[in-house]
Amino acid sequence: MNSDSAKSALNLQTAEPKSGIGAVPMWLVFVMVLLGYRGCVAFENVGGTFNPKLYGPYTSASDLQAYLVKSPEEERYMLGKKVYAESCSGCHQNNGLGVAGQFPALSGSEWVLAEGSGRIVRLVLNGIGGPIKVKGVDFNNQMPPWKDVLNDDKVAAVVTYIRQNKEWGNNLPGVTPEQVAAIRKKVADKADFWQAADLEKINVNE
């Protein structure tokens, strides 16, 4: 080995390491993506605050149980809960207590708790406007009609939910889609809002 070669070899051994930007190996990128995917799958599988007995999109045992219910009545109630959350809770609130001076309560409301559901179904289908008294309190606002938004199944479900919601103190028979369909047919020609005075003339069982 000549002196120049020896010097070059010595310089390589004693040279300070230098930082720099280099390409990330593709195998490392692949491994990182695979690990991330596996982590997402694992997170989705355990779900429910890492309870291994739950899985997405359910985050609690009650949510999962609601999905697993078997009877048509329970399924209707759970559908009604969903419809209520999407379409009604903005005014009447999640607790059914409404907003003082603006939107009446459904919890303990005589309109909800009538023996039959004839009035409340009509109210949901065509809405209501003008003065109305609920639990001794006067209101004067408008509730929009839902007949063109909610089908018979959903109207029956949401009315069932508010009439059977024990958390609100309500515990009355629910409503079937067939009952809603019959009432919808009776009021097919009605184009405007109900007035409370007109609803009060209707038999609650019709």
How would you portray this structure in words?
With 206 residues, the protein is mainly alpha-helical. The chain has two domains: 25-68, no CATH class; 70-200, Cytochrome c-like domain (Cytochrome Bc1 Complex, Chain D, domain 2, Orthogonal Bundle), CATH 1.10.760.10. The chain is 48% helix and 7% strand. It is built from nine helices and two strands, in the order H-H-H-H-H-H-E-E-H-H-H. The chain has a two-stranded antiparallel ribbon. Helix 4 packs across helix 7 (152-164) and helix 7 crosses helix 8. The relative contact order is 0.11.
Essential attributes:
single chain; 206 residues; mainly alpha; two-stranded antiparallel sheet
**CATH class membership of the largest domain:** Mainly Alpha
Global geometry: elongated
Q: Do you know the CATH architecture of the largest domain? A: Orthogonal Bundle
- Beta content comes to 5-15%
If strands are numbered along the chain, what order do they take across the biggest sheet?
Answer: 1-2
Specify the CATH homologous superfamily of the largest domain.
Cytochrome c-like domain
User: How many domains make up the 3D coordinates?
Assistant: 2
Write down the Rg: 32 Å
